[in-house]
Amino acid sequence: MDRTEAVAPSPEPSGTAGRGRESPAAGPVISMRSGTLAYGDRVLWRGLDLDVQPGELLAVLGPNGSGKTSLLRVLLGRQQLTEGSLTVLGHAPRRGGRHIGYIPQQTSLPAHTMLRARDLVRLGLDGHLWGLPLTRPAVRRRVDDLLASVGATCYADVPVGRLSGGERQRVRIAQALATDPRILLCDEPLLSLDLQHQRTVVTLVERRLRAAETAVVFVTHEINPVLGLVDRILYLAGGGFRIGPPDEVMTSAALSELYGTHVDVIRIGGRIVVVGAPDAGPDHPHADAPEEGESQ
Ligand SMILES: Nc1ncnc2c1ncn2[C@@H]1O[C@H](COP(=O)(O)OP(=O)(O)OP(=O)(O)O)[C@@H](O)[C@H]1O
To answer: Which ipTM value was assigned to this complex?
Structure first.
């Protein structure tokens, strides 16, 4: 069996944006007002008003060091806002909430680790077992179901250190979905994946959006693989931000204003190419010369 092909097709065609805006009656699952995050004198972003609705996919873009991961940490209750207010599912954010699934940035695992794919997924359940009175057979069934849902059954018992980046990413998604979360936070889940594996990850996220109305905050350097799914983009750069539908944010005018320098946004064959965006804002300690990129 080709392990990279083991995801069943999405039940519906892809590319329908705007689901989150169809159910505003449920109210936002994330609500931030005038949010500012600074480390010492360095302001990453200031005055951020953000509502994320159930079933909405918010893509978070921006150069290295613009505060994308820090935003996820704030939503997870691991980092406090410097100013402003935030509720997540109606409460102040807190660590370990079972209604939030988190796919952290890929970190390398030692090749000799004995932790198997099913153990990793089970950890996603164990962290919350106080809320889930599951018997051992029920836990096993749940883990099997989660692995099957991401097409990872055939390597359930393989140590994760031996899995490829794409295989490991599927297992991480299964782990993040273990508690049936209402919010899914993804930190660059496409990083270092080839196109085929990128598509697999996007398909799994899309399925979750559609089947469960889970709100997704998707940090990425590459907007193109998720462009058909994105409701809005939050673009962070140089201590500022721009938020709105892709057609409003991904324009030369909007990004030039945000970066404070001329940036070209070109659309070719349904793809977006950003040319001339600096790697980091001028106040960033590692600010670099302008570079060409597909989408920052
Ligand atoms: N706890 C902290 N204390 C001080 N500075 C921090 C802390 N956490 C992150 N930073 C700095 O804040 C900046 C933003 O970091 P963050 O990881 O949020 O950026 P990012 O946009 O996710 O970057 P990348 O695209 O490289 O992953 C970086 O310059 C980082 O070094």
So the answer is: 0.96
